[in-house]
Amino acid sequence: MYRRIIKPILFSLTIERAHHVALLLLRIIGLIPGGRWFLRKCYTVRHPALEREVFGVKFANPVGLAAGFDHNGEAYRELAALGFGFIEIGTVTPRPQAGNPRPRVFRLPKDRAIINRIGLSNRGLDKTICHLRRPHEGLIVGCNIGKNTVTPPENAAADYLRLFRNLYQYADYFTVNISCDNSCREGTTYTRTHILQILDPLFDFRRGQNQYRPIMLKVSPDMSDEVIDEISDILLETPLDGIVATNGTHRREGLHTSHMALDKIGSGRLSGAPLTQRAVEVVRRIHTRSGGNFPIIGVGGIMSPADAKAMLDAGADLLQLYTGYIYEGPGLVGEICRSLIADAEAAAAAKAAAEARAEEEASFNTSICAIFRRTGTGSREGRTRNGNRRDSPNAGRRTCRIGAEPVTGNTEQPGTTCR
């Protein structure tokens, strides 16, 4: 129904207006008694094979919604009812900010992609706390935090710490977004010194708390492999819990959209199908560098169950959707979950079949050994019952033992044991 009816209506609107309409409809459904229950009945897929435990948190399934869809935590309960295993809200900044001038989000239908230069538009910390105070027991909610655009880099750590302290009791995990915003390029934001200046105060605050909140770091696909390795080393050397890979890209190579249209759109982060390959490469590199010992949330270009499997195979523990969700609709979550269930059941069936074959072979080998023990170990054609060759002078004669000395003959003697 989404692809045939809802999507054409939403795509007839500007992407921001369509986004606001979708969130409004979800909030209205949430206000109707039984509304969220109805959404769960329609979209949620449950199965033991989908369950995950990552950084000490139990997830009903590994498919989450990436930050950027619900900036202020307005509809995370309704979004969770659409089948997601977890919701990441934000990016939240300490003070409200309007972001960049509109238009600032653009669809690229030919590439199944989006260009976004919103600029971390949100209603600020206080409004987000009001939304997160609503009852949401059983839902996993992550919070993506960032600095205000007007905050200079040397004061960025104070913005992150303020957000972390005030949201600590409401979020299940945190993602530190160190990108300046969606319209500019990273400069010094990915240096080791700058990252640790932001993370160290968060680690210090967490040590004094009774409850543990995992801290993830979100990285860019535009980083060089050397910088990715440096980020991975930070993961190995500090209390950082994991990586979210990746954000959108500023690159425009290989697109089907015309250069004229791209020039008209201008700057911004590209997300969607063109990002799939690079996002998987980054996840695989981090997984390899870290020895597969730290959690990775794979995000970027997941447009189908095949993309989800590729990301998991590369080393991701959890997944997040964004652009794929916009193009494919809420049914994509269920499609991925059912595909993962089918794979798990096929793997379990193959394992059971292999174990059954091994058991059958072991039983067959045991039976053969028993037969040889009863009939002797020689060839039926070349040997007699007592093991002598048919052409041997002793063929057909029994071997008897008197004490320790063997005696061969056709007649038993007193005190002998014949075989």
Question: What are the defining features of this structure?
Answer:
single chain; 419 residues; alpha/beta; eight-stranded parallel β-barrel; three-stranded antiparallel beta sheet; 13 helices; 16% strand; globular; disordered C terminus
Task: Describe it.
Mean pLDDT is 89; it is low at 378-391, 395-405 and 407-419. It is built from 13 helices and 16 strands. The protein is of the alpha/beta class and 419 residues long. An eight-stranded parallel β-barrel has the order 3-4-7-8-9-10-12-13, surrounded by five helices. Helix 8 crosses helix 10 (276-289), helix 10 (276-289) packs parallel to helix 11 (305-314) and helix 11 packs across helix 13 (331-375). The relative contact order is 0.10.
